[in-house]
């Protein structure tokens, strides 16, 4: 069955990527129904009740057929909070709850249109029962894989085993979590990943190559970023140091252990490090002797200001399904240092550099190159733009072009 001849039913828990997939399908005119957990329209009581709910809507889907059990979703979250359920138990219960809600809506849709010809899309870890129902109806099934799966967990487990000092707070997923994921993969006609790295990770798990499609994420830059002008000094000094920005979850998977080692190796250099995001690791006490600033979690507006004020963005990740912050940085004409373990955004030597290895020494060496040659940053900044490969239009074309 070709996707061009069927309407799509998109099932999405949360507001992942600002609803890029359903928006792309709506843009193409093939979105039949969008099933999500919360849909809070502006001007409603729920919208004014809590600011955190304001992002659970998108005007591009204003005219779409959206089904969301708002009251049930809020009740679930309030009960979980009141009973102290968290961690993997909460994640599993939420995924199960959403699938029950989605199944009820899918059954109703099937009852109203028993001869409907559909493609059902659902994101990994909350898709097993949804895809199972779809297959029973003879519908086409597409799984959106949000990360590199079990391969990534093994990487993180290895990092924690070697970590000194030991890091608290990380736990591997329960075995049932991965068993259900394997069932999802088996039920899917096609599996969408966002990077070559994720594809390689799934192949190591025995997922057949014929099922996997690489479809990069879509990103829409802030309108004001287009006219932003970036300026660099001729020389970096202690009064005007090279400002290196790390933005995101501050954890071992993101390569902060190696970044910490690089900071130590760069003692005495005119480089200042900015860490923005939730801290999930113990900070080595010796880092207090270095020019490091910790900003914690900040608002979306503040995030833009950090991109504008920094000189270089770094993502030394050891595993990411994509790494959307790369596109955010480039949209503000900010060169990026990244790795090959995420989305293919950086063009080595053009708009940034790719680390040959993720180690403190390698990171320090790259940063010294920029410190000693600010003109590299000037040139790379001029080339730092978000390619059309990451547009919503391209995502729409990729989805509707699946065979």
Can you walk me through this structure?
The chain starts with 6 loop residues before the first strand and ends with a helix. Strand 11, helix 11 and strand 12 (336-338) form a beta-alpha-beta unit. 39% of the residues lie in helices and 14% in strands. It has helices at residues 20-28, 45-49, 70-83, 87-112, 128-136, 150-162, 175-187, 196-204, 256-265, 300-309, 325-331, 360-372, 374-382, 392-400; strands at residues 7-12, 31-36, 66-67, 118-123, 140-144, 190-193, 212-214, 242-247, 271-276, 292-296, 312-314, 336-338, 352-354. With 403 residues, it is α/β, with parallel strands linked by helices.
Strand order of the largest sheet: 3-2-1-4-5-6-7
Number of strands: 13
| CATH topology assignment of the largest domain | Rossmann fold
Rg over CA atoms, rounded to whole Å, is 22 Å
Taking pLDDT < 50 over at least 5 consecutive residues as the criterion, the unreliable ranges are: none
| Proportion of strand residues | 5-15%
Summary keywords:
403 residues; 2 domains; Rossmann fold; six-stranded parallel sheet; 13 strands; alpha/beta; single chain
Please sum up the structure shown.
This protein is α/β, with parallel strands linked by helices and 403 residues long. The chain has helices spanning 20-28, 45-49, 70-83, 87-112, 128-136, 150-162, 175-187, 196-204, 256-265, 300-309, 325-331, 360-372, 374-382, 392-400, and strands spanning 7-12, 31-36, 66-67, 118-123, 140-144, 190-193, 212-214, 242-247, 271-276, 292-296, 312-314, 336-338, 352-354.
């Amino acid at each position: 069955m070709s996707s061009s001849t069927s309407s799509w039913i998109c099932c999405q828990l949360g507001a992942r990527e600002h609803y890029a997939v359903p928006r792309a399908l709506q843009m193409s005119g093939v979105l039949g129904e969008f099933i999500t957990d919360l849909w809070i329209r502006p001007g409603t009581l729920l919208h004014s009740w809590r600011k955190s709910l304001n992002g659970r809507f998108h005007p591009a889907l204003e005219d779409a057929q959206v089904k969301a059990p708002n009251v049930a979703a809020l009740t679930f979250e309030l009960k979980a909070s009141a009973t102290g359920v968290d961690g993997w138990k909460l994640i599993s219960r939420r995924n199960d709850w959403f699938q029950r809600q989605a199944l009820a809506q899918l059954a109703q849709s099937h009852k109203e249109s028993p001869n409907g010809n559909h493609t059902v899309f659902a994101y990994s870890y909350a898709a097993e029962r949804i895809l199972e129902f779809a297959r029973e109806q003879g519908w086409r099934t597409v799984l959106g894989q949000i990360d590199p799966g079990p391969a990534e967990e093994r990487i993180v487990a290895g990092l924690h085993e070697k970590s000194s000092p030991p890091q608290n707070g990380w736990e591997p997923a329960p075995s049932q979590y991965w068993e259900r994921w394997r069932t999802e993969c088996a039920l899917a006609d096609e599996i969408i990943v966002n990077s070559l790295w994720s594809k390689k990770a799934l192949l190591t798990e025995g997922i057949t190559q014929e099922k996997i499609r690489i479809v990069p994420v879509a990103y829409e830059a802030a309108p004001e970023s287009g006219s932003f002008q970036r300026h660099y000094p001729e020389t970096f000094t202690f009064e005007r140091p090279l400002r290196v920005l790390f933005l995101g979850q501050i954890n071992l998977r993101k390569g902060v252990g190696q970044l910490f080692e690089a900071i130590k190796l760069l003692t005495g250099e005119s480089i200042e490090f900015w860490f923005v995001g939730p801290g999930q690791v113990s900070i080595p006490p010796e880092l207090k002797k270095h020019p490091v600033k910790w900003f914690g979690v900040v608002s979306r507006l503040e995030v833009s200001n950090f991109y504008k004020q920094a000189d270089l963005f770094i993502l030394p990740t050891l595993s990411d399904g994509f790494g959307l912050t790369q596109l955010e940085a480039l949209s503000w004409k900010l060169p990026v240092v990244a790795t090959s373990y995420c989305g293919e955004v950086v063009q080595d030597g053009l708009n940034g550099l790719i680390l040959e290895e993720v180690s403190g020494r390698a990171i320090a060496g790259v940063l010294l190159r920029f410190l000693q040659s600010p003109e590299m940053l000037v040139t790379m900044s001029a080339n730092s733009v978000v390619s059309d490969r990451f547009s919503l239009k391209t995502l729409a074309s990729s989805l509707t072009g699946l065979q």
